[in-house]
Amino acid sequence: MVEAPSTTAAGPAGRAGLLRLAFGLTAVGLLIAIWGGYDQHWSWTGFRHNATLWDWLHIFLLPLALMAAPFWVRNHANLAPRHRMIFGSTVAAFATLVVLGYALDLGWTGFPGNELWDWLELLLLPLAIGLLPIWSKVLRERHRRHLIAAGAVLVAFGVAIVGGYGYGWHWTGFKGNTLFDWLQLFVAPIVLPIVLVPFAREWMATGVPARAGQEPAAGNDDDDAGAS
């Protein structure tokens, strides 16, 4: 009777320990493979010739967004200043690396040669998933600054579309893409924050409490009928 709680408590702790061990072993194995591919020329890894930073972003960016989204949903309103500083510094460092990658033609980044369309394919879905709380807040509050920012983005994007298709701006990568290509690019990132998030919020805010609130009302009516 006394040992049962300790066994139950040890179960989740043991599983968490196994998950951490498996994650650690996987990370070590991946690091060894990366070292062998780039430094020892292990051809079976494919890292030496093909895996630039751009390729690694394609592999890890979406999983990282999926892992970050639950944490972001729970804690985005209570982030400490140092966390915000770390996030801002990371974004600034990445933006600087992108600029240097193009300006200095850093081949190991894999950035040179990729156009705006390629960046949209890389970033739109992870951003839509990772920033779900922000989309939800913007759609709910709709402050003037949100509308101004959205309008500026839409205007800039419209100019890029006109320039890409009408004036042959090569850096956009838009020319040659059909309506079907645009649908493939935008449907998931738009459906997630604009359709699914408001639907889920309304369902959680109105659907469940409404059903829960009906039960006491029915019980009160029965009590009143019995009393009469």
Word description of this protein:
With 228 residues, the chain is mainly α. It folds into three domains: 12-51; 52-61 and 78-113, no CATH class; 115-228, no CATH class. It contains eight helices and no strands. α5 (116-130) runs parallel beside α8 (179-227) and α6 (132-141) packs across α8 (179-227). The protein is globular. Mean pLDDT is 78; it is low at 208-228.
Poorly predicted residue ranges:
208-228
Structural class: mainly alpha
Most strands sheet: none
Beta percentage is under 5%
Number of domains: 3
Q: Output the helix-strand order.
A: HHHHHHHH
Using DSSP, what is the number of strands? 0
Ends: how far apart? Answer: 49 Å
> What is the rounded Rg?
25 Å
Form type: globular
Average of the residue pLDDT scores: 78
Helix content: over 70%
Quick synopsis:
The chain has 228 residues and is an all-alpha fold. It has helices at 3-38, 47-50, 53-75, 81-103, 116-130, 132-141, 144-166, 179-227.
List keywords for this structure.
mainly alpha; disordered C terminus; globular; 80% helix; single chain; 228 residues
